[in-house]
User: Fold this.
Amino acid sequence: MYTPAHGAASARGALQERDTAEFAALRLLVGSLAHDFNNLLTTIAGHASLIEAEADPGSEVQESARAVVQAAERASRLVRELRHLVRPTPSEPRRVDLHEVISEVVDLIRPLTHNRVSIHLDLRAPAAIVKADPEQMHQMLLNLLLNARDSMPDGGLLTVETAAEEPTGRLSITVRDTGCGIAPEDLSRIFEPFFTTRRAQGGTGLGLAIVARIVKKHGGTISVESTPGRGSAFRVSLPAPEQTQSSSA
Ligand SMILES: Nc1ncnc2c1ncn2[C@@H]1O[C@H](COP(=O)(O)OP(=O)(O)OP(=O)(O)O)[C@@H](O)[C@H]1O
Ligand SMILES: [Mg+2]
Assistant:
């Protein structure tokens, strides 16, 4: 099992500083790219809608135009997610039902798996209430589920489990996949910003760095177990609401 806190202590301070500067630069870049992208997508969707409306009903042209509109809308949603991913994080923690967030994120992921991945929910925690920023919980789960999906290009099983930890009352959330797994030599690097083995597929290597930051900010811990060729399990443990210290970190 690997937890990011096990990293080399001497390197940690330097890494955190670089982290902040890199995030700040990236936030600017993504913010301006997202803005331009949205404008382009609005143009694409707008013109395709016009073609759809003008085309002969039921014709191939109309079908194609509709497909373009739908793809542009999906791209627009992805850009929105991307923006959320790197936005600054002024947070107003409140009571959040993580079971609700999990089902929202699963609904979002399902159409992105092209029916190749079965999704199984095992929500055993009697109550999955945490004191947290709901947006950030969404972002954390979305990144873990996207990674699980990405690890199974030929399909597999994605499981999301919750449980109340005994005797602490903390809440654990485990995202499990039957995908490619993580090479032992990569395990200590996956939480670093910009570490990715998926650059050719458009990976930025920021997903897990953001997840780790969110978990830490909420007084939680994250650990991972993985067997190459068999799959991985990412487990997040969060304090119950009454254990949460208010923190602006
Ligand atoms: N569920 C998983 N199964 C196998 N490898 C994983 C999994 N989750 C993360 N990894 C490994 O950790 C690396 C870093 O993950 P991270 O989410 O930070 O970036 P990414 O997924 O590569 O890019 P992005 O999140 O920007 O799409 C991945 O490139 C991959 O090698
Ligand atoms: Mg990722």
Summary: The radius of gyration is 20 Å. The chain is about 45% helix and 20% strand. Confidence is low (pLDDT under 50) at residues 6-17.
